[in-house]
Specification:
By secondary structure, this protein is α/β, with parallel strands linked by helices. The protein has one domain: Response regulator (Rossmann fold), CATH 3.40.50.2300. 44% of the residues lie in helices and 18% in strands. It contains six helices and six strands; from the N terminus they run αβαββαβαβαβα. Strands 2-3-1-4-5-6 form a six-stranded mixed sheet, with helices on both faces. Helix 5 links the parallel strand 5 and strand 6. Helix 1 packs across helix 2 and helix 3 packs parallel to helix 4. It is elongated, with a radius of gyration of 17 Å. The chain starts with a helix and ends in an 8-residue tail after the last helix. 40% of the residues are buried.
């Protein structure tokens, strides 16, 4: 999870630097990253509080700033529910003035947050959900799918096993 958080922070730095000057004032010269994750639901042990902690640790590893701008980490509990994820993403963009959101361990919550991020023209990095639509038909100009997708995992693994001559194998 720490690698995911570090990658998100590095991505935020580069993306923020590339955004036109007018858009850079979204978070008042800070890099605000919202971690949308399941803090209390079925997937809380997979990403949850650990994802928030990893993002905080990654920010500290960077000295608390990128390109001279302070890194601020906020978080919200989606309980892996699409409606909560969408409303929390909207709240983070409107109230918390986050520059980007990361996280979302379930497909439904990831897709809801991606849709809101696109409306606000802000970045959404999906770090937990693996469903193919995140990478394909539901992908937006503002979304990054940082993990494997289910098709690539099964296709690549299955092909490699069959190509190596194996006749019996299980996922």
């Amino acid at each position: 999870m720490k690698k995911t958080a570090i990658a998100a922070l590095v991505s935020a730095a580069f993306l923020t630097a590339a955004i036109p000057a007018k858009a850079q004032t979204v978070s008042d010269n800070e890099i605000r990253i919202g971690v949308l994750t399941d803090l209390s639901g079925i997937y809380s042990a997979i990403e949850g509080p650990g994802a928030v902690l990893a993002a905080q640790m990654a920010a500290r590893d960077f000295g608390g700033q990128v390109l001279g701008r302070k890194i601020v980490i906020t978080s919200a509990d989606t309980q892996s529910k699409a409606d909560l994820s969408g409303s929390k993403a909207r709240e983070m963009f409107e109230k918390d003035k986050v520059d980007m959101i990361v996280g979302n361990v379930s497909t439904a919550s990831a897709l809801a947050a991606m849709e809101v991020a696109e409306q606000f023209k802000r970045v959404s990095i999906v770090t937990g959900a693996a469903s193919l639509p995140i990478t394909n038909e539901k992908c937006t100009p503002y979304s990054i799918h940082y993990v494997y997708d289910t098709y690539a995992l099964s296709r690549g693994t299955g092909k490699a096993v069959v190509d190596s001559g194996k006749k019996t194998w299980f996922f």
